[in-house]
Design goal:
- This protein is α+β, with helices and mostly antiparallel strands and 494 residues long.
- 53% of the residues lie in helices and 9% in strands.
- The chain is built from 16 helices and 12 strands.
- Strands 1-2-8-5-3 form a 5-stranded mixed β-sheet. The chain has a 3-stranded antiparallel β-sheet with strand order 4-12-9.
- α4 packs parallel to α10.
- It starts with a helix and ends with a strand.
- Bound molecules: N-methyl(5-(pyridin-3-yl)furan-2-yl)methanamine.
- The site of N-methyl(5-(pyridin-3-yl)furan-2-yl)methanamine has 10 residues, from α12.
Length: 494
């Protein structure tokens, strides 16, 4: 009796110690997270955050807690990194630890961890490798794609000439042109500018991308588990994403019917061939779902990012006619009027190069970055982030870091020029992010930005509907992405 009583006491004591130890361990771990406002259960820091201005809300928390802090977006615990130091220390100096992907609730609704952009682990690794190699096979980084971009620029010039100097919204002019470059790679062909289906795809991309910047889009980042079942603008975004997926599925089926395994015509063919090669491999990532969703990633990212940047760019050039005049001068002097711009010209055009960098810096396309996630328990500075913790690398705070840019709020190409007018690199220029998950479309994007901007400006000057001083260049909305104001512009032949 006494013995069994003793045993019970000992067992209970052991249990108590185990429970205490586990609580203590968790507290110790949580205790080492960066500081931040106290969260409520499920709501997290909802009450402290303005969903219309998530970025600004996080900036207020930075003022209170410092450049590295913890915030709870509803039930999501996120460590926020601000400024060049913190972002680089994490994404570059601890590249492996910070190489996981966090959530983007809207796009995750469709992608569910598949594809290349919103995936993790082996899937992300395999899709990224394959995408980079295959883009290169189809000419990215080489003369092949340069010629395709030059040809497409020619079609845009024609389309703009046809507007005869009337005021137009440039959105779909730019997106059709930009999208045709990536379309040539993933689908093997460009779309006709009059193609109705093409225009509807471009509308679906624009609209779902813009949704991520809205109040509802930002609220959805916190409460997607509930909101995905409720009516609201999110349902329209889902419909658009589904429409895009359906189109890609249709294209894949067309390719399958006509596939020649010995001569891939496009990205889809190359993926299909890889699927055939890996059929016997039991835990392989090359399956239909990854084919469709990786293709959609390339199509979407290759369209919306560059075209939004160009759209913001022309607005900035109308706001700053002196800057536009200097670009015109440099184009006339270095390229002249009688031949098409080529990518090599960039080396002799530091002013234009600085302007493009300043446009990207100012446009701040993805201000909070694509969310990352630590792949293991990670010591960062004096903190400890448990495996799986989400991380926001606040790219906007790097692009506007006052330690690196004299007047970060101003649009000024001299942020990228030295006293002798030579192009000056800047370590805080990170629109493509950093580390293991940086944008692998960077090279293609840079080539497109340079060739499209210079070809348009070689052929046109432009006129705003308003006086320069009356143009408002502050974004229409900022959320996951930054949306430039809607405007009209008149392209006049020079
Ligand atoms: C994106 C959106 C939907 C499907 N695939 C990609 C997306 C948004 C922003 C970027 O990609 C930037 N490049 C990673």
């Amino acid at each position: 009796m006494l013995a069994s009583g003793m045993l019970l006491v000992v067992v209970l004591a052991c249990l108590a110690v185990l429970v205490l130890m586990s609580v203590w361990r968790q507290r110790k771990l949580l205790g080492k997270l960066p500081p931040g406002p106290t969260p409520l259960p499920f709501l997290g820091n909802y009450l402290q955050l303005n969903k219309e201005q998530m970025y600004n809300s996080l900036m207020k928390l930075r003022d209170r807690f410092g450049p590295v802090f913890t915030v709870h977006l509803g039930p999501r615990r996120v460590v926020v990194l601000c400024g060049q130091d913190a972002v680089k220390e994490a994404l570059v100096d601890q590249a492996e630890e910070f190489s996981g992907r966090g959530e983007q609730a809207t796009f995750d609704w469709l992608f569910q961890g598949y594809g290349v952009v919103f995936s993790n682990g082996e899937c992300a690794k395999q899709m990224r490798r394959f995408s980079i190699t295959t883009l290169r096979d189809f000419g990215v980084g080489k003369r092949g794609i340069e010629e395709r971009i030059q040809e497409e620029a020619g079609f845009l010039i024609q389309a703009l000439q046809d507007t005869r100097g009337t005021f137009i919204d440039p959105t779909f002019y730019l997106s059709r042109t930009v999208s045709n470059v990536i379309s040539s790679i993933v689908f093997g062909d460009r779309f006709d500018y009059e193609d109705k289906e093409f225009l509807s795809l471009l509308r679906m991309m624009l609209s779902s991308f813009q949704f991520t910047a809205t109040f509802t889009g930002q609220l959805f980042e916190m409460f997607h588990s509930i909101m995905k079942h409720l009516p609201g603008p999110q349902q329209q975004a889902f419909k658009e994403l589904k429409g895009l997926e359906d189109f890609i599925t249709k294209k894949v089926e067309q390719n399958q019917r006509t596939l020649d395994p010995n001569s891939p015509r496009d990205f889809i063919d190359s993926f299909l061939i890889r699927m055939l090669e890996e059929k016997e491999n039991p835990n392989m990532e090359f399956h239909m779902k990854n084919l469709v969703l990786t293709t959609l990633n390339l199509f979407f990212a290759g369209t919306e990012t560059v075209s939004t940047t160009l759209r913001y760019g022309f607005l900035m050039l109308m706001k700053h006619p002196d800057v536009g005049a200097k670009v015109h001068e440099e184009i006339d002097r270095v390229i002249g009027k009688n031949r098409q711009p080529k990518f090599e010209d960039r080396a002799n055009m530091p002013y234009t190069e600085a302007v493009i960098h300043e446009i990207q810096r100012f446009a701040d396309l993805i201000p909070m970055g694509l969310a990352r996630r630590v792949t293991k328990d990670t010591k960062f500075r004096e903190f400890l982030l448990p495996k799986g913790t989400e991380v926001f690398p606040m790219l906007g705070t790097v692009l506007k870091d006052p330690k690196f840019f004299s007047n970060p709020r101003d649009f000024n190409p001299h942020h990228f020029l030295d006293d002798n007018g030579r192009f000056k690199k800047n370590d805080a220029f990170v629109p493509f992010s950093l580390g293991k998950r940086y944008c692998f479309g960077e090279g293609l994007a840079k080539m497109e930005l340079f060739l499209f901007l210079t070809t348009i400006m070689q052929n046109f000057r432009f006129k705003s509907a308003q006086a320069a001083q009356d143009i408002d260049v502050s974004p229409k909305i900022v959320g996951f992405t930054t949306i430039p104001p809607t405007y009209t512009i008149s392209f006049l032949p020079r």
